[in-house]
Amino acid sequence: RRRGASPCSAPISVPASPPARATGGGGEVAGGRKAEGKGCVFCRIIRGEAPAFKVYEDDVCLCILDSHPLAPGHSLIIPKCHFPSLEATPPPVVAAMCSKVPFLSNAIMKATQCDSFNMVVNNGAAAGQVIFHTHFHIIPRRSGDKLWPTESLRRRSIEPNETSGLVTCIKEQLYPSPEGCNDEPPYSLPKER
Fold first, then answer.
1. Sign, CA torsion 21/103/29/142
2. Active-site choice (74, 82, 133, 135)
3. Other Cβ atoms within 10 Å of 21 Cβ, number
4. What is the longest distance spanned by two Cα atoms in the chain?
5. Among the ranges given (3-17, 66-80, 134-148, 176-190), the one the predictor scored with the smallest mean pLDDT
6. Phi (first) and psi of residue 118, to 5 degrees
7. Per its UniProt record, what Pfam families does this chain match (predicted)?
8. b/e sequence 82-98, b meaning 16+ C-beta within 10 Å
9. Cβ(138)–Cβ(62) under 8 Å?
10. What 3-state class would DSSP assign to 45?
11. Does some domain include residue 69?
């Protein structure tokens, strides 16, 4: 495979067309996992079957404006191959997507006259993912935009005794050993305030 080629089994051809109306183009839709092909809105955009405002495109990924933005310039970086979650996405594809973040976010911030941005991945239903095709959100921010409350209201200091068991189990998942973790977690999750 040539350098930068799509990781899909069959190459995907994306017509280089001017931006179309963004109805249904990049905003997230309700529902469960969609099958690759007809049901996945991002696959339809990639194939040129659904409208979107394309900002950037290469062999591996596409960047479009979200059709239901949290802020002007809210963009999505989408791999051209269908992967339902971040953990299902091959590391080289994730690396290619991440490598575009500085380039794209700089252009988005300049265009929107913002000096900050959030990069968000909603991975899994509990995290708010509703289009089950991996994608990164780049959300331009400015001071006082009140997009969401500060995290400092919900954060608390880490307690070493509460988290040492969790650290052990995470390391066990990274570097499995014969003893492994018990089914019962040896830690207690922080209580909601």
1. negative
2. 135
3. 10
4. 57
5. 3-17
6. -105, 140
7. HIT
8. bbbebeebeeebbebbe
9. no
10. helix
11. yes
Contact residues for 11 (Cβ-Cβ < 8 A; gap 6+): 5
Residues 159 and 69: their CA atoms lie apart, in Å, by 37
Structure tokens given for 95 = 């690396």
Same domain, 95 and 135: yes
Instruction: Judge whether 166 lies within some domain.
Output: yes
The answer on 157 and 66 residing in a single domain is no
Retrieve residue 165's tokens: 């068991």
Residue 33 lies in a domain: no
Q: What percent of the chain has pLDDT over 90?
A: 56
Structural domain boundaries enclosing 184: 150-193
Same-domain check for residues 191 and 123: no
* Known catalytic membership, residue 135: yes
Is the CB of residue 49 less than 8 Å from the CB of residue 19?
Answer: no
pLDDT one-digit tens code per residue, 33-80 = 333 556 899 999 999 999 999 999 999 999 999 999 999 999 999 999
Residues 126 and 107 in one domain: yes
Q: Which of 121, 159, 116 is nearest to 141 (CA)?
A: 116
